[in-house]
Amino acid sequence: MTRTSPPLDALVIGAGPAGIGTALALDAVEDLTFGLLERGQIGQTFLDWPEAQTFLTPSFTGNGFGATDLNAIHPETSPAFSLGVDYPTGSQYATYLRSVVRHFRVPVLDDAEVTSVVQNDDGFTVESARGPVWARSLVWAGGEFHQPLTPRVSGSGLADRACSAAAWRAREGRAVVIGGYESGIDIACHHVEGGADVTIVDGETPWDAGTGSDPSFRLAPRSRRRLEAATATGRLELVAANAAGVKRDGSEWVVSLDNGSRLRTDSRPIAATGYGPGLGPVDHLFARRPDGWPELDEDDQSTLAPGLFLSGPAIRHGGLKFCFVYKFRQRFAHIARVIGDRAGKDTGALEAWRAAGMLTDDLSCCGVECAC
To answer: What is the crossing angle of helices 332-342 and 17-27, to 10°?
Structure first.
């Protein structure tokens, strides 16, 4: 893919679930020209996952009954069917993504890391490792995994980030995990299962969040089951305090807490403090909400740069989070329809995505709580 004239109708950046899913929705728009750039290989983020890390949401095959697999990015596909597993590893899910790209012939250019994005009067000029591309509309689907947040504590460089392979290697004695939400619980349970004694520190005590049915604000059912099992061993301790600093003391590490206490650990502490929006070269084209996340209009479009859309787990609307595949995939077809309508194309085929529960354009229906 080289500099195009006339420009593409749409360019997607990132060949993960959000990027490929959006590209598939764009493909359903009649006569729309589009392409997809990927910094590495298809599903690179998932190829980068630590080997022991798996999905929190289960895959299942229920398409024949109108129940789309929770981790599918197209209504007619199912990771559970393709892979034969319910909680895929990163490498397994990357295999699913590659198979979808092959089957639907998605135009992906890999090893094309984007280095800069410039907005023009009639679109965007995107510079990449494989050359420039010009497009009227741009969809950023770079994901969050490449932007792990560093704990705001002194000595944070002495901690292993939860997304690193080092954080998942077997540990002896006592380990300390900073952060008690999904990634912290996941890696803590992993080490308890491996025989270590683990302490999780988090002043917000997310493991106690018992109100609401939205797993974006409380632990997923699988995480709760694993947490109960780990606690039952007597080798998991949950501490309602925040880390204030990390120091090396001989062969040990010391984690000081904001309640004045200190924890000694036999290995480097693990920082499981979440991820940022991962906007990379388009960061300057998004305004920020008060909570620091990208500000979007009702079409998932930047409020600073019309024609630039966000697809993936960084989407926020009011108090709504779209941080699981089954959530953010509901916006693929909506973005594609907005782009298609602006280009004067027929977008009627996208109604099939709505029928499959993969097109939501009424945000008021999101966030509804279960009655029991």
So the answer is: 40
